[in-house]
Amino acid sequence: MKLKKGDLVVVIAGKDKGKKGKILKALHSESMVVVDGINLKKKHQKGYGQIQGGIVEREAPIDVSNVAYWDEKAKVPSKIGYEFDKKGKKVRVVKKSGSKIK
To answer: To which H or E segment does residue 76 belong?
Structure first.
């Protein structure tokens, strides 16, 4: 999986198609990501101590195949590839624009 926590992605399939958000959590073993404000589900939470109970909305994991990296330079969704820099270190590269990802 080439996407990491903090990457800006756009949803390309599903009920939230077209929405953008940052990855909050990457679940590598399940090939899923949790994206801020995307795939919201209602959860019934029991109150305890100082925390009040009720129905809360939380982000649920979305399959990595349903999101694409958002390229800020080209303003389009793009795939990610790998290249080696001059020191021999592997870096992530946006396929459409050719820019390197931090």
So the answer is: strand 76-78
